[in-house]
What does this fold into?
Amino acid sequence: MKLLFASANQGKVREVFKIFGDLNFELCSLVDFIDLKNLDLEETGSTFKENAFLKAKFFADKTNLQAFSDDSGLVIEALEGFPGIISGRWLRGTDADRNRGILSKLKNESNRAAAFVTTVCLYNPHDQQTHYFEGKVEGEIAMQSSGDAGFGYDPIFIPEGYKKTFGELGLKVKNKLSHRSRALEKLKKYLMRY
Amino acid sequence: MKLLFASANQGKVREVFKIFGDLNFELCSLVDFIDLKNLDLEETGSTFKENAFLKAKFFADKTNLQAFSDDSGLVIEALEGFPGIISGRWLRGTDADRNRGILSKLKNESNRAAAFVTTVCLYNPHDQQTHYFEGKVEGEIAMQSSGDAGFGYDPIFIPEGYKKTFGELGLKVKNKLSHRSRALEKLKKYLMRY
It folds into this structure.
């Protein structure tokens, strides 16, 4: 069976293919659809769940394939949940720009508690069945950016129980314990019933 | 003394000039600065307060005038505070598009409690003094859009104690009780000491 991961984000696609490599599905992503990968789908949801659903449904309907999508973000306690659903867009520019922006906002802040959260939505365009899978990893925001593994906020996020950032720990460790991998493992377990 | 209202939003400028008409200041807005009014200042704050400060400081520094700016938004209880600081940008398009979007999100929702909130920041580029003034009006989201007075979410917001939206009640009523006017009245009182 063919299954579409509705993302063209290289960092995410790498993570997902690593986790799903041993599954009995023919996995593809938006990278394989030249006409879809540059489609600008606006994230108008008010929650991660709603945004994950919007993306999965949109690309499932376009391709007529069962599709899944994730919406993820960083939730910082001292900033009342910011950047949350606007993690990828509160500041234009690169991941590094956004990391600098967060570090600057927390410059004089001792409470550095944060969590990475993900909601994955699986949508079947044939029967409109929709399933959600959630993942979360608690941690804290580092004092400075370190490491170049992963993407997004990985260089400034230290998962609970570790002393290094996801950027330093590398993809292998990250895939074992990250928010996204936790949600994706639940999805994988669900799909393995087929 | 010259005072700059750091906004080029016609709806806001109209409201502000009405409220400040009787003040002993020479009031101008970004509408009067051809080279400034199309400057695209990104709202990277995590709160209304931070965004109001960023705007006031930016344009005060550019013009060397004492400047004030407001950041406002709609906070909907059933949507956990959404759209909040992204009220003006969570969906591209017109005010009417965003109003339709909110009504659609609340389609099957009985809890329609909402509040309009504003933070005004006054910034003096000569001594870097900064003052904040807050305003809030509680109310609820209407079942449908009504009225064409005001701008933004006015056609779908019914202030507490009324049965009509700000869009129907008109600028005179709105300026008496709105979030923005409450914050601006506090600023006005402060300025009148001069």
The first helix of chain A runs from residue 10 to 20.
